[in-house]
Amino acid sequence: MSYFLRALALAALLAVAGCQSAPVQEMSDARQAISVARKAGAEQHAPYDLKAAMDYLSSAETFISERRYDMARRDAVSAKSSALDALRASSDKSDSPTN
User: Fold this and answer.
1) Could you count the other beta carbons within 10 Å of the beta carbon of residue 93?
2) Per-domain residue ranges for the chain?
3) Which end of the chain is more exposed for a tag (fewer CB within 10 A), N or C?
């Protein structure tokens, strides 16, 4: 019986370890980065990077609704990265002298 309990405990531990939680922090980070990029003028100065960020975020939201948290986390991180690219491009354009 002791063997059975150990096996049951191990199975329960593996089941819990396999469960992933929703990427709440990553989603929040991505949304914030997109917001900051928009405020910096990314819609005008870096529309492709901003669109990529929004597309990744949308994809992450879809994955969350499907409980595919690993894919959602990946796309949320990509959304943040693209938003930061848009922010850098916007900052570079606003820092350059105008004619």
Assistant:
1) 15
2) 22-95
3) C
